[in-house]
Amino acid sequence: xxxxxxxxxxxxxxxxxxxxxxxxxxxxxxxxxxxxxxxxxxxxxxxxxxxxxxxxxxxxxxxxxxxxxxxxxxxxxxxxxxxxxxxxxxxxxxxxxxxxxxxxxxxxxxxxxxxxxxxxxxxxxxxxxxxxxxxxxxxxxxxxxxxxxxxxxxxxxxxxxx
Length: 162
Prior knowledge:
The chain has 162 residues and is α+β, with helices and mostly antiparallel strands.
């Protein structure tokens, strides 16, 4: 398998992981049980990543090993790979657990990968995240803006027909 085919296969696997994780969380949407939604999403994400043909190390995750039984920082996941795909993983099964539990919009399932050693290793702290879908102008999000500036703007409607 060529590098491009491998990249595409891993990218599709990542989409499948986030989709399965979001579906697991959605089963708890609006039930008011944040812990159950988070547990279902985390268990699904763990299971799905464990089957991928990668050697992944969680760099951003659910916390240190003594705080979280799965998806903890430093945990190695994946089924291994003859192709040598060694990756750093950043995971958050549900970003917006309260939103999910209250049936509100904007909860996300987050799974990002980088080649081993290419993610910044940060302490387990809360970080602001920015997510935007297709169809918006390229200059809409300024990563150098302050968090207040990023969240105070009213977003235009996306272009359609993409």
